[in-house]
Specification:
Elements lengths: L2 H9 L2 H4 L2 H8 L3 H13 L4 E5 L5 H7 L4 E6 L2 H4 L6 E4 L12 E7 L7 H11 E12 L5 H17 L6 H13 L2 H12 L2 E8 L4 E7 L2
Parallel strand pairs: 1-2, 1-4, 2-3, 4-5
Antiparallel strand pairs: 5-7, 6-7
């Protein structure tokens, strides 16, 4: 278990799984759902989708609504237990328990900053069918004037953490984890090296999150 796994296990516990959906919506001022809708748009119409770090199943449910069959995988069993996904398993995205060329899309939200980009991208390539797409979304550390607003916002979250034992580690440490991560560059470079085509990067909401995608042709 490396540092990223340790952070994820510390942040996402059975105790805060129940309130995760509400907290993710409120803490992002509703942008969480907008970002996930963008993931669904990039994925397009697919038959079989693997949702990495599927958690409570927010993204899985949105993709299922398009008619796709969705399989989820997550480290946190307490989160999986709350997911409506019909097919979900506990595990790591760096060593996927699936056969080669099983899915025509691999998606993730809020995973990339916790994992070894090369391992996850290689595994995504392995389980993707030809013509499939891999999509990675996570927070990004903004620059310029937005960085000052970002810092002020996390100052407020640090204070809020003092009143919430369940979410204190997240509110105290998340901004540091995000801004130390170089996941956008690492993932996009790993995708190109692995053989993905038409690799794209799109920043969302004034640079506070990003989506990286590519196709296995």
């Amino acid at each position: 278990m490396h540092e990223g796994h340790a952070s994820a296990r510390r942040f996402f516990t059975p105790e805060n799984a129940r309130s995760y959906d509400r907290v993710s919506l409120v803490a992002t001022f509703g942008r969480d759902r907008a970002w996930k809708r963008r993931i669904v748009e990039i994925a397009g119409r697919r038959e079989s989708v693997l949702d990495l770090a599927s958690g409570t199943g927010i993204l899985s449910s949105m993709i299922s609504a398009t008619g796709a069959s969705v399989t989820g995988i997550d480290l946190a069993f307490g989160y999986l237990a709350r997911s409506p996904a019909k097919a979900a398993c506990q595990g790591t995205a760096e060593v996927l328990p699936f056969r080669n060329e099983t899915f025509d899309a691999v998606v993730s939200s809020y995973l990339a900053k916790y994992v070894d980009a090369g391992l996850v991208v290689n595994e995504a390539w392995r389980v993707l069918l030809p013509g499939g797409v891999a999509i990675f979304h996570d927070f990004a550390c903004p620059k310029g004037a937005m960085r000052s607003l970002w810092n002020a916002y996390f100052d407020i979250l640090h204070i809020a953490g003092a009143f919430s034992r369940q979410w204190r580690p997240v509110f105290d440490e998340l901004d540091d984890v995000i801004c130390r991560s170089r996941w956008v560059g690492s993932v996009s470079e790993a995708m190109i090296e692995c053989g993905f085509q038409d690799v794209g990067v799109g920043y969302q909401t004034l640079g506070t999150s990003a989506i990286v995608w590519g196709y296995k042709k």
